[in-house]
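Before we proceed, please read the two lines closing this message. Let me know whether the structure tokens fit the sequence:

…
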Amino acid sequence: MPQYMENGLPMFNICDCCGFQAGFDDDAKNEPESIEQYRKRWVDYGSNWFSSKPSKPQGWNLEEQLKKIGVDL
């Protein structure tokens, strides 16, 4: 089960890294986007860290993080 789901339902948390909000971005009335579609667009646009609090951890590496969830750039 994806980390943004609990008991099969979205948690509405906002990812500090990319800004995806399960239950909002993937359930938008006009243009719903899966986490995979959102992530691809985020990476294509430079994968800027979304949150100012917390800020991006020192030494954080996008490729390493994506590999942990089975995604290759």
